[in-house]
Amino acid sequence: MSALFSREDILKELFNVGVGKAASTLSEIIDKKINLDVPDVRIMNMVRGKQELDVFLRQVTEGAAMVSSISFNRQLEGTVSLIFPAEKMHQFIDLCLNEEYSENNSLEFSDVDFDTIKEIGNIILNAIIGELSNTVHIPVEYTLPEVSVLQSARADLLVSDASYHLVLMMYITFNIEGTMIDGAIVINMTLRSLDEILENIDKIYGGE
After folding, report:
1. Burial profile 167-199: b = 16 or more Cβ within 10 angstroms, e = fewer
2. What gap in Å lies between CA 48 and CA 45, rounded to an integer?
């Protein structure tokens, strides 16, 4: 069990490096200071992963979520999704576009809104998977990001039902010049892919 925790600690550090690079890139693009933090990484089987994700969706997003997802394959196979409460996304988008925020509870989003989230998701998700891929020396190929608004978000809409898949779940907090927006990153990958990652981590870090 201690070995699993040490591996999770290493994964957490790798993902934090990835989101740190993404935050730096986003800060330059929107000319605002952005901090991103991944406080914890959890590796769960499909049943537990769905339960955890459903709790997040109920409590944090209150059911409606904006999701940006990419699929990856080659030696690693899976999907990674960036999930935010839909009701807060107008504020998030206005901050990114340097526009004045006005209270807006609407779940309607323009093409510009979707393009903005698609670009943000692309930067963050590519940074995370890219950092992991480069560190453990396992090549991956990505699809273009897809963005959707789920009015009644449920875990089974975001993760595979296949028994050979696992869920890596990370909570993430955006801090844009003092404005805090909480979200989550969910990686749904095959057991074979995770095994290969962990085996390479053991080789690189001496199993510690």
Report:
1. bbbbbbebebeeeebebbbbbbbbeebbebbbe
2. 6
What pLDDT is attached to residue 159? 81
The model carries a pTM of 0.83
- Give dist(CA 83, CA 60) in Å, integer: 10
Residue 27 vs residues 71, 129, 177, 204: alpha-carbon distances, Å? 25, 20, 10, 32
Q: List phi, psi (to 5°) of 99.
A: -110, 155
Task: Please give the helix or strand (H or E) that residue 182 lies within, else none.
Answer: strand 179-190
Asked if 136 and 193 touch (Cβ cutoff 8 Å), the reply is no
2, pLDDT greater than 50: no
Neighbours of 165 (CB within 10 A): 21
Number of other residues whose CB lies within 10 A of the CB of residue 207: 10
What's the rounded Cα separation, in Å, for the pair 14 and 10?
A: 6
Placement of tokens 């080659």 in the chain: 74
Distance CA 114, CA 117 (A): 5
Residues facing 37 on adjacent strands: 173
Burial of 1 (0-12, 13-18, 19+ CB in 10 A): exposed
